[in-house]
Design a protein that fits this description.
InterPro entries: RmlC-like_jellyroll, RmlC_Cupin_sf. It comes from marine metagenome. This is Cupin type-1 domain-containing protein. By secondary structure, this protein is mainly β. The chain has one domain: Jelly Rolls (Sandwich). The protein has 1 helix and 11 strands; from the N terminus they run E-E-E-E-E-E-E-E-E-E-E-H. The strands form 2 sheets. It has a 7-stranded antiparallel beta sheet with strand order 9-2-7-4-5-11-10. The radius of gyration is 16 Å and the shape is globular.
């Protein structure tokens, strides 16, 4: 077999240099792809094996020490089920394995909005923050270590 890199057509408004990546997450029962949002990227998932409790949130606003989020998806994700996130929609997500082994395939694209001023990164949050009006949540910004202590 031969691997060939596709030539993507130049499209007005789309950066010339997109960076693609992929990975497989392997989780034991009760472990999570912890709650986090993204800056300057889009990502898509497909469950390969196992079942997950998946949650998505729209990123409504950024504050100095919090992110204002709104729940959009709270569902079971089984084999073949997919989801996607971007800076525009369902920016925050969280998947908890309900059995094991559980595998999620992920593909991501970095650098979608180079003029945003945000470097491509994960932004960890605690979605069990202060409940606001209209179903909004003021989710504290937390670091990687704290995210895994709470939800890993």
């Amino acid at each position: 077999a031969r691997s060939v890199r596709p030539r993507l057509p130049k499209i007005e408004g789309v950066p010339n240099k997109l960076v693609f990546g992929h990975q497989v997450f392997a989780l034991k029962k009760g472990r999570s792809v912890v709650p986090h949002g993204h800056n300057n990227m889009a990502t898509a998932f497909m469950v390969l094996k196992g079942n997950f409790h998946g949650r998505h949130y729209d990123r409504m606003a950024d504050e100095k020490k919090h992110m204002i989020i709104k729940p959009t998806i709270d569902a079971k994700f089984g084999p073949g089920k997919t989801s996607s996130i971007s800076d525009i929609k369902d920016n925050v997500h969280w998947f908890k394995a309900e059995d094991e082994p559980a595998y999620i395939f992920n593909i991501h694209v970095f650098g979608l909005n180079p003029g945003s001023g945000n470097r491509t990164s994960r932004v960890y949050v605690d979605p069990n923050g202060e409940k606001l009006d209209d179903g909004l949540i003021r989710a504290p910004l937390i670091d990687y270590k704290r995210a895994h202590q709470l939800y890993g």
